[in-house]
Specification:
Length: 114
């Protein structure tokens, strides 16, 4: 019994460490919390259209722990997104880690051009 709980706690510990490492890749820039479009092959971030739950001063989510329950548009970033999503900026920590792309500043779009 003691042995089994040791195994369980090792598995839980390993899971927690992996999750912590995954979350640590996010640089908390908040750029994936704005409306984004592709134009002429480039990612355009509409800084005038943040998610209603984004604190635009701190770039942090105000409902982080329950974000998937309260925000239907919110998507978990996965390895698939990190590798292939065209809607994550090159500066995203996951893109940097998995695609090793050169850093480019995301493009802003004037609000009145929508
Ligand atoms: S709910 Fe999702 S999209 Fe909205 S601010 Fe939070 S993490 Fe970003
Ligand atoms: S764009 Fe990437 S690094 Fe920035 S908040 Fe979103 S997931 Fe994190």
């Amino acid at each position: 019994m003691v042995r089994r709980s040791g195994v369980v706690s090792r598995i839980v510990g390993s899971f927690r460490r992996r999750r912590k490492r995954w979350e640590s890749l996010c640089n908390r820039c908040g750029l994936c919390c704005y409306e984004r479009v592709r134009k002429n092959g480039r990612l355009v971030i509409r800084f005038g259209s943040p998610c209603q739950f984004l604190d635009t001063e701190t770039h942090l989510c105000t409902v982080y722990e329950c974000r998937f329950q309260v925000c239907p548009e919110c998507r978990k970033v996965t390895i698939f997104h990190a590798l292939f999503s065209r809607y994550l900026p090159d500066s995203c920590g996951y893109v940097q880690e998995y695609r090793k792309r050169p850093f480019r500043r995301p493009t802003d779009e004037p609000q009145n051009s929508r």
